[in-house]
Amino acid sequence: MKKNNFFIALFFIIFFIxxxxxxxxxxxxxxxxxxxxxxxxxxxxxxxxxxxxxxxGPSLDSLKPTxxxxxxxxxxxxxxxxxxxxxxxxxxxxxxIVSFYVANSAGK
Length: 108
Prior knowledge:
Blueprint: H1 2-38, E1 46-47, E2 52-53, H2 60-63, H3 67-76, H4 92-105
Antiparallel strand pairs: 1-2
Helix pairs in contact: 1-4, 3-4
């Protein structure tokens, strides 16, 4: 009986880990699309993982910003960078997704 409980618990642990990995993969794919196509971040920023070679904004590979830093910058903008969230060019969900993508891609 204890052996069966162990295998059941192990199954659920593996299931939730794989589910989490799949969710992160989906966010990365969506984040790349937002970065390159929807928001056009690649036109201004360097981000090797996205194939971006912009020269207007800072290199995200050099900055290696945290997810919270990206969220703040994308939502409110700074200088010539538009406020994508505040001006409703991106939804809150899109801001969160592209922030996750950048934070997990920068410098890699």
